[in-house]
């Protein structure tokens, strides 16, 4: 993995693969369809406009399921790294689950939103929300029945891009964990980081669409390869 003694600033990108062993389905694996709908057909503003009940049911089901799942050894290892690492560190997750936080990580940014947030499209307020949205509950701030999941759909701008690009600019090491490299802008972070001089490492179950861009790829389940990599980093630093 190159010379670890030169590494001070780390950016870690995580995707659905890091939560797969916690029992949360990935989007693009076998069986990644939901009632025969591809994610590209339910995770768009157009789908929500066309068939809001379908989209709200999809998110109600996932919001409920995620609350029953637990962090796995990969989330635990990243939390250990977050606590121990003295330099800059940012975990940019594409996941809407809160398993990084529940494992104890605090330097976490949710670029595609969070399953426990609802967004009122009438008054633009975001509220913590753990129940269903299908019955069109009132917004706690304004009372309008206009809540939608606070998640980023295709064609919408991911959250906190300025902060992410700033972290990528100063990164010495960029690590991508359990993401297929199919969705931009996250899929382009490896090139951004590499162009700016960072070392790049991919940890994934199998080679992904983006594998060719990384200096190194390590294959295996996240619950095994992530703790191994964290142990290595902490031993060498
Ligand atoms: C394991 C494992 C184990 C399994 N251990 N690993 C043409 C070219 C370029 C871009 C575009 C284009 N046409 C349109 C676009 C833009 C579009 C896009 O990328 N489309 C593609 C389809 C091409 N992107 C957007 O619209 C984004 N917005 C945007 O671009 O705004 C403009 C902009 C430009 C520049 C800068 C800034 C802004 C928004 C994208 C929003 C994506 N939203 C979703 C839903 C979020 C809410 C929800 O969760 O429901 O995000 S879609 C879905 O995909 C979700 C995920 O976060 C995202 C990525 O999926 P992920 O995590 O990679 O999962 P999988 O299933 O694909 O892969 C799992 C991986 O895990 C696999 O690799 C397995 O091997 C691995 N794995 N088990 C380790 N045990």
Descriptive terms for the model:
six-stranded parallel beta sheet; 237 residues; binds ligand BJW; alpha/beta; SIR2/SIRT2 'Small Domain'; Rossmann fold
Determine the mean pLDDT: 96
Query: Which small-molecule ligands are present, each listed once?
Result: ligand BJW
Per DSSP, the total helix count is 9
- Beta content comes to 15-25%
Please summarize what this structure is:
This protein is of the alpha/beta class. It has two domains: 4-24 and 71-112 and 158-236, TPP-binding domain (Rossmann fold); 26-68 and 115-151, 2-Layer Sandwich (SIR2/SIRT2 'Small Domain'), CATH 3.30.1600.10.
Could you characterize the architecture of this molecule?
The protein is α/β, with parallel strands linked by helices and 237 residues long. It folds into two domains: 4-24 and 71-112 and 158-236, TPP-binding domain (Rossmann fold); 26-68 and 115-151, 2-Layer Sandwich (SIR2/SIRT2 'Small Domain'), CATH 3.30.1600. 32% of the residues lie in helices and 19% in strands. The protein contains nine helices and nine strands. It has a six-stranded parallel beta sheet with strand order 3-2-1-7-8-9, with helices on both faces. Strands 5-4-6 form a three-stranded antiparallel beta sheet. α5 (73-84) packs parallel to α9. The structure holds ligand BJW. Residues 15-17, 20-21, 26-29, 32, 39, 43, 94, 96, 112, 151-158, 161, 178-180, 182-185, 204-206, 208, 221-222 line the site of ligand BJW.
